[in-house]
Amino acid sequence: MNTFAESVRSWALQEVVEDRRARYSIGVVAFALATAFGAQVAVVLPWTPVPVTLQPLFVILAGVVLGPRMGALAIAAYVTVGALGAPVFANGGAGLPWLLGPTGGYLLAAPAAAFVAGVVAGREGAALRTIAGLTLGVATMYVGGVSQLLAVTGLGLGEVLALGVVPFLVGDVTKILLAFFVVKSTRRTSLGRA
Question: CB of 150 within 8 A of CB of 118?
């Protein structure tokens, strides 16, 4: 990387807030908001009740960037705000009925997914460990989503996998790779994580 680009990068990653607790608090709020905005980037597929969104990207990033506990807290805050009625779920969905519907399992599993991603990736995880954490985070969301789809729809496992996993594999692999490159670029400097 040339000197100008490196200078800009180091300037952009400087710590603005020095207090560690304040940084984590800002991070929790930022990831809860990013997840809410990511949910609004939704594409409805006609053959499945589950829309394609950017939520999984922010869920796994929260766990790896903030760490397992703070990442799970950020996503739990997002789910709680939506459960209380704020229109933060996909396509402006909100409320407890949304969490009890066909897509609720993905949302309910999201805090656990952030936690798993953070634990497996580790504090300064190697590339393979980081990819494993991001992948297992998405897999955790799949487990929650498929479980609830099975309960709500009454369909068989094969049909539920065809509705709730298969259409999203390519997009989620892309999100995992994007998250990996974001994490990799922020971990090059000691400023990225306390």
Answer: no
In a domain, 6, yes or no: no
Residue-wise pLDDT tens digits, 104-120 = 999 999 999 999 999 99
| Structural domain includes residue 2 | no
Given this model, what pLDDT does residue 24 score? Answer: 82
Name the pTM for this structure: 0.86
Residue 43 lies in a domain: yes
For residue 130, give its domain range: 17-192
DSSP state letters, 68-119? HHHHHHHHHHHHHHHHTT-S-SGGG--SHHHHHSTTHHHHHHHHHHHHHHHH
Q: For residue range 71-92, list pLDDT tens digits in order.
A: 999 999 999 999 999 999 998 9
56: nearest Cα among 101, 112, 98: 112
User: Residue 106: which of 30, 45, 71, 55 has the closest Cα?
Assistant: 55
Query: For the domain that residue 73 is a member of, what is the CATH number?
Result: 1.10.1760.20
5 domain-assigned: no
Q: How far apart are the first and last CA of the chain?
A: 25
pLDDT exceeds cutoff 70 at 6: no
Q: Rounded to an integer, what is the distance from CA 91 to the centroid of its chain?
A: 17
Cα angle 155-161-167, degrees, rounded to a multiple of 5: 125
Number of H helices, E strands in the chain: 9, 0
For residue 52, report the phi and psi dihedrals to the nearest 5 degrees: -85, 125
